[in-house]
Request: fold
Amino acid sequence: MQYIAALDYEHLDNGIFLSSLAKSISQQKEVRPIIIHGDSKYTERVIQTGVMREDAVVRSIKDLNHRLIALFADEGISTIGINGYQREFISIQDDKISMDKKYFNSLPEEPALLISTLVLNRDHNQPQPISLTRLATFLRSNLPAEQLFVFSRSDSDEIMKNNELNDRAAWKELEKSFIENKIPEEFHRFNEKMNLTTAQHFHKVPSLESTMQIS
Reply:
């Protein structure tokens, strides 16, 4: 099973969550994770050193890619880290995203893939961050990825022994309070199929037990 897991802005600055997630991924069997991420609160700390925001975002995303590779390695997870612009893997021109599928198919099948939201802007020939949701939608449309996983922003979901995220729902049925409390802010208006879960219960994948399937 090949899946996409999106690490949102808030979770990327949560060391306990990231460690729990890495442990869960290390326990998964017969899967190929494609983990995507953008920037985090780390960007603000870079800005405080005197770096302009536009440059700070790029630097932050690059640093996070390296840090996540090291974190996963500590749990024995072999990971290939890719910033989207590298090797012109993912690019954008005239606001249209494209991908070098030949390069993707040349990558080894076993290691997890860690892909950042930094893509190549062909109009200016430089890295450009795109939104996490846009990258998630694009990759799911262009890769054979069976599921998209997003992680609950509620800390209580992580500490509950029996996760309550085990239902199905339509976006239009979700209450505003549920969206605000459970779904990462970047995905509040996503309105596409996804699975909401927690780092603690993520080890059960490829089983969708303890995930809420939202469509």
